Amino acid sequence: GVAAIYASGEARPIVTRSAAAHYLRPLKGSLMRAEGRAIKAGRHLCLARAELYDDEGRLCCTGDLELFYTD
Question: Rounded to the nearest 10 degrees, how much is the dihedral formed by the CA atoms of 21, 68, 10, 12?
């Protein structure tokens, strides 16, 4: 969500229009790393992707989000 807020070049309020999570494997270890990025930001919608990694660097979960700019 944070990546989508700033993807248009300024801080813009958003709401989630749709979201899908894809669980690939269980998280192992005590730490995890999350990464998020805006794939495409338009005038009203933004497509974003989130990825969650375990402490060994293995991809455990991905999420695709469609976010709507409310301003």
Answer: -110
